[in-house]
Amino acid sequence: MPYVNIKITREGATAEQKARLIQGATQLLVDVLGKNPATTTVVIDEVDTDNWGIGGEAVSQRRKKGL
Amino acid sequence: MPYVNIKITREGATAEQKARLIQGATQLLVDVLGKNPATTTVVIDEVDTDNWGIGGEAVSQRRKKGL
Amino acid sequence: MPYVNIKITREGATAEQKARLIQGATQLLVDVLGKNPATTTVVIDEVDTDNWGIGGEAVSQRRKKGL
Amino acid sequence: MPYVNIKITREGATAEQKARLIQGATQLLVDVLGKNPATTTVVIDEVDTDNWGIGGEAVSQRRKKGL
Amino acid sequence: MPYVNIKITREGATAEQKARLIQGATQLLVDVLGKNPATTTVVIDEVDTDNWGIGGEAVSQRRKKGL
Amino acid sequence: MPYVNIKITREGATAEQKARLIQGATQLLVDVLGKNPATTTVVIDEVDTDNWGIGGEAVSQRRKKGL
Q1: Topology of domain B3-64, CATH
Q2: Which of A38, B55, B59, C32 could cross-link to B49 by cystine, CB 3.0-4.6 Å?
Q3: In chain E, what is the straight-line distance between the N-terminal and C-terminal CA atoms, in Å?
Q4: What DSSP character marks residue B17?
Q5: What tens-digit pLDDT sequence spans chain A (67 residues)?
């Protein structure tokens, strides 16, 4: 029954990587809390780098500076 | 004043269906709690099937298996 | 498989009213999109009136003014 | 360490405007609560006008009516 | 920089279990996508069983039925 | 119409500080995007320090170490 939402910047995560995030997050809830994987939901949001800020600055700007 | 967020997989919901979700969710808050529809917000997120997991597996994989 | 999040101010919604929100939101997804109710999740967040703002003002302040 | 999520309709916000939202929201947390900007995250979601409802109606419909 | 939100029913998760969820979710992002753990945020929401619905029914009701 | 969600650790923010966050976030949307403050919603979530992780560790643990 748990619900997990993972937000990452949209920078080329592959379907295979996203499948591993889904599998890993689901297994984590099973291992730590004994939750039922069949009703565990994982939603991944990929966010444009113009729309994600850290340190008061968009990631798109940080990438241009090599950060 | 309520805020409702509906997350579904991106699998072809039409504008008309989304309008019905917005209308129905707003009416539900009016009927059950007497909320003011004028300030009730509904946001629908459509999520790629690679990015939605259930049972530890992406929906895109499940669809290939006929689930 | 849908996920619905309903945010309301914490102003005395009863367990019976919350049960109706859960039932109604689930049925809405069944009726409009043919979703499976067994895997439809509804989460209700009740938010303190100090922590909810509309029109630039906390609801707790608005309530004192009779709004 | 705060996390701020700003949801707006997708109606042409520019990268420069989004940068100002990121900067302003981060500064707000610094000014009011003394938070560390380096670990303050801001995520902006732009939502299609078919997917955003207010008053029981999609914004796309409201725009057609000049609202 | 990722942000992970884990929602579970409030049914007695301990501080130690929540620490394991935080550690595990952070490590997952490191392992799969090479993310920097220092800026990875995990937020756990514990939701009252009256406020979480599955199958159109509150978890509090399901628990009374032994589900 | 925008919706802003601010998540902070529960470490004693006062009603007055939360009112300033609500006012400031609303004004930011007015200033940058010309949004209508009357329908701008701000929701503040205060999260227990056991339930907020950064760097793979709960904030409650970090506070004990003086971080």
Answers
A1: Macrophage Migration Inhibitory Factor (3.30.429)
A2: B59
A3: 38
A4: H
A5: 899 999 999 999 999 999 999 999 999 999 999 999 999 999 999 999 999 999 999 999 999 998 8
Longest Cα pair distance anywhere in chain F, in angstroms?
44
**What are the Cα distances from residue F56, in Å, to E21, E22, F51?**
9, 6, 12
Q: How far is E42 from chain D (nearest CA, A)?
A: 10
Calculate how close chain D gets to A62, using CA atoms only, in Å: 11
Is the whole model's pTM more than 0.95, yes or no? yes
CA distances from B3 to C8, C23, C34, E58, F29 (A): 7, 17, 23, 20, 18
C3/A41 CB distance under 8 A: yes
Q: Using CB atoms and an 8 Å cut-off, which of residues 3-62 of chain F contact chain B?
A: 3, 39, 41, 43
- Interface confidence: ipTM more than 0.90: yes
Nearest one of D17, C40, C9 to E54, comparing CA atoms: C40
DSSP 8-state secondary structure symbol assigned to residue C11: S
Whether there are 3 or more C-beta pairs closer than 8 Å between D and C is: no
Whether D42 and D26 have beta carbons less than 8 Å apart is answered as yes
